[in-house]
Write a structure and sequence with these properties.
mainly alpha; AhpD-like; 294 residues
Length: 294
């Protein structure tokens, strides 16, 4: 009998808990949402529909993050932040974010060649991520190969091999890889011989090209942003180390990762909420037109 009374008391208590929690819960921060919308109007010249569609209780902090990281002055110049965003969004793939970052990067001065290089960097990163995760090399062995290659590059021994390779066969490609990196990494030697010449020449023409439109540091930060949200532990390590070699600071590295995270966040919402794409593009165009007037 006592047991039944105890159970009844517990059931009664549990029934009251949701009511108590509801009574203690803070009121919906409508005023914070309204303040965020007011700030959007002031900053962007309008409140884009996709921001209105975002849950009101979360729009204020989401806007605060977006404004501080993407629109504010940070360690990475605005143009290159947008190229990171473009690289990430182009391989998600997300039509909304690809359009947004293309248009905003162009508004920040990015030329067509820079836009295409950012996209190809994303593609190269995604391709080698697929190769590495498919081969599943031992993590420590992969990192040691990267360290050895970077040590060789630091020594200046590979400078004479920076010029675009003329290799047409696998053996010529391996010889050029060795001249450039000091050895042929195992993941490259495992790539089909029939295609290694082409894939190496593409890699060298974009990622290792000192005359590219996008500076080396920012190419690697694009690669890091893509790698971080795939996610690919191999590529994250590679692009972090090469970015540091190219002069990237810890702050810039962390910012590139955060940019990738924010792009993925908004891509998830835009695609999940099935935001009208034509309306989204009109909002982006109107915001940029307003920015030009300012």
């Amino acid at each position: 009998m006592k047991a039944w009374r105890l159970l009844a008391s517990l059931a009664s208590l549990l029934c009251t808990l949701p009511l108590a929690a509801a009574a203690d819960a803070p009121t919906a921060p409508g005023d914070e949402a309204d303040k965020a919308y007011e700030d959007m109007q002031k900053t962007l010249g309008r409140v884009p529909e996709f921001f209105k569609a975002f849950p009101r209780e979360a729009i204020a902090p989401a806007w605060e993050e977006f404004k501080a990281l993407q629109l504010g002055p940070t360690s990475i110049p605005a143009k290159y932040k947008e190229l990171i965003g473009l690289g990430v969004s182009s391989q998600v793939p997300c039509r909304y974010c690809t359009y947004y970052h293309t248009q905003v990067a162009a508004a920040q001065g990015a030329q067509d060649r820079e836009l295409k290089e950012a996209i190809v960097m994303a593609g190269i990163t995604r391709m080698w991520s697929a190769v590495l995760n498919g081969l599943q090399p031992e993590d420590g062995a992969f990192r040691e190969e990267v360290r050895q290659a970077l040590s060789y590059v630091k020594s200046g021994a590979g400078k004479t091999a920076v010029r675009p390779p003329q290799c047409r066969t696998a053996d010529e490609a391996y010889a050029d890889i060795k001249a450039t990196l000091g050895s042929v990494p195992s993941f490259m030697s495992a790539f089909p011989k029939v295609a290694i010449a082409g894939v190496w020449k593409e890699f060298k023409a974009i990622e290792l090209n000192p005359a590219s439109a996008v500076p080396a540091k920012y190419k690697e930060l694009i690669g890091l942003g893509v790698a971080a949200q795939i996610p690919c532990k191999y590529c994250v390590f590679f692009h972090t180390e090469v970015a540091k070699l190219a002069g990237a600071t810890d702050e810039e590295i962390h910012e590139a990762i955060a940019m990738a995270a924010v792009v993925r966040h908004w891509s998830t919402f835009l695609n999940g909420a099935q935001v009208d794409e034509a309306g989204f593009r009109r909002d982006v165009d109107a915001v940029l037109e307003n920015a030009k007037k300012k």
